[in-house]
Amino acid sequence: MTASGVNWYWAPLSTLLIYAGSIEFLAVGFMVAGLPLYQVAFTSLIVNFRHIFYGLSFPIGRLRGRVRKAYGVFALTDETYGITSAGPGAHLTGRQITVLQVVSHVWWFLGALLGALLGQVVPESVKGFEFALTAMFLTLAVNAVRSSRSAALVLLALGAGAVGYVVDRYVVGESFLVVSLLLYVALISATYRKDEEAAE
């Protein structure tokens, strides 16, 4: 955030209000670009759509009281879901689940706070920090392709991005993310269904 010109205090504040992993990183670009609210909301829905399925098996019934249940839904991340849905973590009590989520949230907040403060003392002559987020997602994408040994997802993403660019440029302005994400989800869904039918 600091490398992108956003005031440092937005980093820890965003961890308290958003706390949604990847969308929190993407929010930096949204803030800098000044994207309209509908596009931010839609992108957030697409990126975090998996949480709907997490909620189907998350043991919210163990949490007592409205406040703890509300926080349990808010603080449901990939990591806490992974711990509470399998193995020894599947037997955690409601109190243990709440403690797990609070500790995870505080850790996330402190990391953002420390990073924002350190970002204040890094000399402006040091360049490249604004590319760190892009580099992280590129690394994750490369590792995903290597593990699956398939370039299909990359080709679908590039195709969806190209169509999104054309629509954004010549049809509806500021629609790149919405069009690209919708098309990509449709393409991978069709591919998944085709693979399932082939397996049968």
Describe the structure.
This protein is mainly α and 200 residues long. It has helices at 10-17, 22-33, 37-47, 50-57, 66-74, 78-85, 94-121, 132-148, 152-170, 176-199.
Please work out how many helical segments DSSP would assign: 10
* Helix amount: over 70%
Shape: globular
The average pLDDT is 83
Strand percentage: under 5%
The Rg value, from CA coordinates, equals 19 Å
What's the total count of β strands?
0
Largest sheet: none
SSE string, helices as H and strands as E: HHHHHHHHHH
Structure, briefly:
It contains 10 helices and no strands.
Task: Name the descriptors.
mainly alpha; 200 residues; single chain
Task: Describe the secondary-structure layout.
Layout (H helix, E strand, L loop, with lengths): L9 H8 L4 H12 L3 H11 L2 H8 L8 H9 L3 H8 L8 H28 L10 H17 L3 H19 L5 H24 L1
Helix pairs in contact: 1-7, 2-3, 3-10, 9-10
